[in-house]
Predict the 3D structure of the following.
Amino acid sequence: MRSRFCAAAALAAAALLAACSTANTLLEGKPIDYKSAGTLRSLEIPPDLTAPTNDNRYAVPAGGETTLSRYESTRAQQGRADSGTVLPRIPDMHIARDGSERWLVVSNETPEQLWPLLKDFWQANGFLINVDQPQLGIMQTGWAEDRAKLPGEMGGFSLQRVIGPLYSTGLRDRFRTRLERTPDGKGTEVYISHQGLEEVYKDQERVTLAWQPRPPDPGLEAEFLRRLMVRLGAKEEVAKQQVATAQGKPLAEIGQAPGGVQALTVHEPFDRAWRRVGLALDRVGFTVEDRNRDQGVYYVRYADPEVPEGKEKKGFFASLAFWRSNDKKVVAEQYRVTVKDAKDDSVVEVQDKTGANVNTETSRRILSLLLQQLK
């Protein structure tokens, strides 16, 4: 018995080592399979709603006497009606693209109509909803791990079943969905932005691990736009073709605006510049408290990560994590990021909470972060 136990233990250890060494080979062609860090809460019925009805597939039709053919015809009609409500079919939609930015345009559905469908979409893909602000049109998932990156099968033996609870990819993703009304007010523009974290060693001894931001992945954004199209009723081939459509990249640059303040020039008309600046704010991780498209203003909060003189400066990726500052004196302040129409171009400026233009290190840093996403 002891020898058998030792042999089994050795076999398990060998399988674990082989899984680590052949992970890249096993991951080729794996689908996306996210699993949230938390768990879904059990479904609760609100007090002002009634409980869901029981399954009535075996219910006897009302009206007294009936025939078998009439009963089967009634059940078939009910089945067709039920199947039509499982997934909506919204044929009038397409993917728009500017450079690496893509968004979904749904022509005949308002943000209010799409909101519950989007929530179901993210939950069906394994995410929890952490931010739910329909008044701002912003929905954000919690951090989740792509379990498809775990080792799969080797020799017919499922490694995920054995090492899945113990193994971590060291990568976490979350997605922010932002809704904008189309210019005619009848449809909706859906923007999906990705934010990522990776686990790295903090010391040379490779003992202490810490999470740090990693660059956004436009490929993941495009993939979830494609999945959303299919979820809303588009055919798989049509969704793939829409996402793969390519266009040229517009340019953006930092220069001087009238009055001597630093500004960001986007070589796009106002409508496109407004969308791109909003997506850039989402990707960098700014807290967008409100926005006013008519005035071209995003109301954001930003905590400057730069430490006072005499202290060690942080790296680039650490500077993006302005929400995780070690200096307790650093407080997030409110700014206005404005987008102004300038004929064929648009001008992006940073203002303080009173609406006055500012030309400080912080304002230049905000414009630099936006430029990195807009170029």
